[in-house]
Amino acid sequence: MRKNIVAGNWKMNTDRHSGATLIVNLLNGLPQEPKCTVIVAPPFPLLGTAADLLSRDGRVLLGTQDCHHEASGAFTGEVAAPMLASYSVSHVILGHSERRQFFNEDDGLIRRKMEAAMRCGMSVIWCCGEQLADRDAGHHMDVVERQLSVAFAGFNTVHLDRLTVAYEPVWAIGTGRTATPEQAQEMHAFIRQWLRSNLAPAAADTSILYGGSVKASNARELFAQPDIDGGLIGGASLKADEFLAICSGF
Ligand code: PGA
Fold first, then answer.
1. Rounded distance, CA 52 to CA 119, Å?
2. What number of other Cβ atoms are within 10 A of residue 27's Cβ?
3. pLDDT digits (tens, 9 = 90+) for 48-70
4. Integer CA distances (angstroms), 107 to 1, 94, 104, 148, 216, in order
């Protein structure tokens, strides 16, 4: 079902104390009936604390920034999807461009991680997006189409309701340079059409989030676009006031 969603990707930021404080501040400032589904994805060490604080309240869902594609085993340092499910994680961010760039994750691996998370009943925020050179060369649609084709070839559409897509042009992440609402809308419409034609008519109802330097000052204009259902927020999710203002931008 198509929903408005704002998800905070904390990346490798906060510690035990500042992370817990951020969650408490978010819960204190959030309206009783938020205008959208709100998700926070803290780093793994905060999972237990975040799960306790959030489950007591119920207005904010818990996300993570990755999971391993195997359910258990000898994979030193990794975190498996069933572990996350046992902490009531609802959304796993996968395919983020930083994972692709710094950890060599390719579309095939991301696909396996997506299946692992969905098998455990969790939803996936699957990220895609082009580099600046691709956009400058006019190839941005081709790049995203290629990412979609690998991720969703033979995708089992019974899991469609567990899918959220995030379009994050790499040149807009953490750079302060946001895609214009028109650039974002164009790509979102393209992704929605691709999902409709290649997965199932019902896939047109997938929530598609924009990510890349979203702030309180530009969220409203982006979220007003017909195919933008919310945002995946990095830097601005680390400040409670800013994140809450983004959540009210519908
Ligand atoms: P940013 O990051 O909001 O700091 O640009 C977005 C993201 O990487 O998800």
1. 24
2. 17
3. 999 999 999 999 999 999 999 99
4. 25, 10, 10, 9, 32
3-state DSSP assignment of residue 55 = helix
Q: How many CB atoms lie within 10 A of CB 31?
A: 10
pLDDT in tens, 191-208: 999 999 999 999 999 999
Q: Does the annotation mark 96 as catalytic?
A: yes
Nearest CA to ligand 1 atom 7: 234
Separation between Cα atoms, residue 79 and residue 67, nearest integer Å:
6
- Which of 98, 105, 130, 168 is an active site residue? 168
Catalytic residue among 96, 98, 130, 140: 96
Domains and CATH numbers, the chain: 5-247 (3.20.20.70)
Which of 232, 243, 247 has most ligand 1 atoms within 8 Å of CB, for mutation?
Answer: 232
Tokens encoding 36 = 């959208």
Number of the ligand 1 atom closest to the C-alpha atom of 233: 3
Q: How remote is the CA of residue 237 from the centroid of ligand 1, in Å?
A: 9
Tell the residue nearest (CA) to atom 1 of ligand 1.
234
pTM of structure: 0.97
Q: Left if phi > 0, otherwise alpha if psi is -120 to 50, otherwise beta: which for 213? A: left
